[in-house]
Amino acid sequence: MSIVLQRIYEKSNETGYRVLVDLVWPRGISKKEAKLDDWAKEVTPTPDLRKWFNHDPEKFEDFKKAYKKELLNDDEKIKKLSELQELQKKQRVILLYAAKDKEHNHALILKEVMESDLPSQNKES
Fold first, then answer.
1. Which of 5, 33, 42, 88 gives a 20 to 30 Å CA spacing to 110?
2. Cross-referenced InterPro entries, in alphabetical order (predicted)?
3. What letter would DSSP give residue 101?
């Protein structure tokens, strides 16, 4: 299927598995209104990285490198990304985010990483 990005504040006719990929709940959106299937806090940027970036377009390339490093070097993040990758093989996955800037946000990077090969995770099961 596919991975679709959508700002949580925008109405859409897209159907699929709806995943909020923000650490903080978006203001003004009720849980009922959000119609979420999942809230993937595990794959969000760390608070320090998020605060450093502060949605500054001039910092986006450095933010992208640092966020990818976080995503690909954390077993918990890789596990959740793998789960979402498996889901998108069966149905559309809609990554929901609150950022106003559609060209400089972590959801774009997350989608890019999900569409690539992930490193294998250390399984202890």
1. 33
2. YeaO-like (IPR052552)
3. -
